[in-house]
Structures are given as C-alpha cells and as structure tokens.
C-alpha cells in the first residue's frame, strides 16, 4: 500500500486539479459570495432575536414546513439526558430533591416524545389523504 506522508503525487490527476490556483480562488470566492448573499437575505427578511420572518405571509408559508427529523432529535436528546442521569445517579449522593428533579424531567421528556409521536402520526395520515 502506497503512503503519501502528506505529500501529493505530481502524477495524480486529482492533485493537479486541486492544486490549480485559479480553481481554488474561484471556489473560495464562490463560497464567500454565497455566504454574503445568505447574510444579506437573512438581515433583510429575518428578525435577529426571534429568528422569524418580518413578513407574515412568509412566516405562515415556512411555519407549515414540517421537520421530518424532529422525532429523532427528541430521541437523541432523551438518550443524552438518560445517560447524564445514569452517570449522576451513580456518582452524586442520593437525595429526595435529586429524585424528584429527575422524575419531573423524565416525565416532561416522555410527554414531549409522546406529543412528537402523535404529531408524526397525524402528519403521515394527513400526507396520505
């Protein structure tokens, strides 16, 4: 197996293409222009603190967009929370306050997961009709 050890083979066609300074400059400028135009659009159309659209019709249009991964986000957050709880239960001395806090948070997260599952099921059933 051939190792480059950080050096590119001059015979490698991909290395020569990526080493072309004009292409690198063009790619860099393209990314900079895209970033500037996104920043300009964001400053013109979005409120900075609330991150909502300034125009109500745009806000209505994009608020109808459903995040398909919301359930996965909630599940991952729940797993992280449960792992943190497990670590703290094994390390921190037990108390009634700690138990009530973890139970309250667990019930709240369970409620959020339940609502997101129902929301996903309603979304799927509405999409089929």
TrEMBL record:
<keyword id="KW-0472">Membrane</keyword>
<keyword id="KW-1133">Transmembrane helix</keyword>
<protein>
    <submittedName>
        <fullName>Adenylate cyclase type 5-like</fullName>
    </submittedName>
</protein>
<dbReference type="GO" id="GO:0005886">
    <property type="term" value="C:plasma membrane"/>
</dbReference>
<feature type="transmembrane region" description="Helical">
    <location>
        <begin position="97"/>
        <end position="122"/>
    </location>
</feature>
<dbReference type="GO" id="GO:0006171">
    <property type="term" value="P:cAMP biosynthetic process"/>
</dbReference>
<keyword id="KW-0812">Transmembrane</keyword>
<dbReference type="InterPro" id="IPR009398">
    <property type="entry name" value="Adcy_conserved_dom"/>
</dbReference>
<dbReference type="GO" id="GO:0007189">
    <property type="term" value="P:adenylate cyclase-activating G protein-coupled receptor signaling pathway"/>
</dbReference>
<dbReference type="GO" id="GO:0000166">
    <property type="term" value="F:nucleotide binding"/>
</dbReference>
<keyword id="KW-0547">Nucleotide-binding</keyword>
<feature type="domain" description="Adenylate cyclase conserved">
    <location>
        <begin position="8"/>
        <end position="70"/>
    </location>
</feature>
<dbReference type="Pfam" id="PF06327">
    <property type="entry name" value="Adcy_cons_dom"/>
</dbReference>
<dbReference type="GO" id="GO:0004016">
    <property type="term" value="F:adenylate cyclase activity"/>
</dbReference>
<feature type="region of interest" description="Disordered">
    <location>
        <begin position="1"/>
        <end position="24"/>
    </location>
</feature>
<feature type="transmembrane region" description="Helical">
    <location>
        <begin position="70"/>
        <end position="91"/>
    </location>
</feature>
<feature type="compositionally biased region" description="Basic and acidic residues">
    <location>
        <begin position="1"/>
        <end position="15"/>
    </location>
</feature>
<keyword id="KW-0456">Lyase</keyword>
């Amino acid at each position: 197996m051939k190792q480059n050890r950080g050096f590119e083979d001059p015979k490698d066609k991909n290395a020569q293409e990526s080493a072309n300074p004009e292409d690198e400059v063009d790619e860099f400028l393209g990314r900079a222009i895209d970033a500037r135009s996104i920043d300009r659009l964001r400053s013109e159309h979005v409120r900075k603190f609330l991150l909502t659209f300034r125009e109500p019709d745009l806000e209505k249009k994009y608020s109808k967009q459903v995040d398909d991964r919301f359930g996965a986000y909630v599940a991952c957050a729940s797993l992280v929370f449960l792992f943190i709880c497990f670590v703290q239960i094994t390390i921190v001395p037990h108390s009634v306050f700690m138990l009530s806090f973890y139970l309250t948070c667990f019930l709240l997260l369970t409620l959020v997961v339940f609502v997101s599952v129902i929301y996903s099921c309603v979304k799927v059933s509405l999409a089929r009709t």
